[in-house]
Amino acid sequence: MPGALLSAEVLVGVLVAGAVVALLVVFVRRRVIAAGTALTLCGLRRRESSRWRLGLLRLGTTRLEWFPLLGVTFRARYEWERHSLDLDAPTMLVGGDRIDLLPEAVGVHCYYGDREFDLGLQTPHYTALRSWLEAAPPGSHADVA
Questions:
Q1: CATH classification at residue 45
Q2: Which of 39, 99, 101, 138 could link 56 by a cystine bridge, Cβ 3.0 to 4.6 Å?
Q3: Are 52 and 119 contained in the same domain?
């Protein structure tokens, strides 16, 4: 019987260590992805799917990047250049269209060339995204009225 008890203790220890390592990886990954910029929780839904996928949205100097919430990669899954991205007006997500972790989110239909997708964001984050999209990046020499 002592052998079974020792095996159970080892198993619990391995599970606890695995959970700690997983949390550490999530924390380090988020810090590396942020790279000194703000990240926001964001839902992404491609046009061929009805399911929202949660991720982290990063506003770069010239592009918008979306990272899956869970994962081990430090590379963005989707990237959209600022000058080619267009947003529709936001709509409230209601009923079965809502995102569980973002209860007050608005949905924004986006166009990127011939591709279409939806982003689900909290209202202040949508405002920041819209401002970022309409602002000219430094050194772009955009014609300003």
A1: 2.30.29.30
A2: 39
A3: yes
81: left (phi over 0), alpha (psi -120 to 50) or beta: beta
- The SS3 assignment for 129 reads helix
Domain contains 117 = yes
Same domain, yes or no, for 66 and 119?
yes
Q: For 10-54, how does the pLDDT look when each residue is reduced to its tens digit (9 = 90+)? A: 888 999 999 999 888 888 888 888 877 878 999 999 988 889 999
Query: Rounded to whole angstroms, how far apart are CA atoms 11 and 9?
Result: 5
Tokens describing residue 9: 């203790």
Residue span of the structural domain in which 24 resides: 1-34
Q: Are 66 and 57 in contact (CB under 8 A)?
A: yes
Domain identity same for 41 and 95: yes
More confident position, 32 or 130? 130
Q: What angle do CA 124, 59, 28 make, to 5 degrees?
A: 100
pTM attached to this predicted model: 0.79
Rounded CA gap, 26 and 13, in Å? Answer: 20
123 and 53 in a common domain: yes
Give the model confidence (pLDDT) of 76-110 as tens digits. Answer: 999 999 889 999 999 998 888 888 888 889 999 99
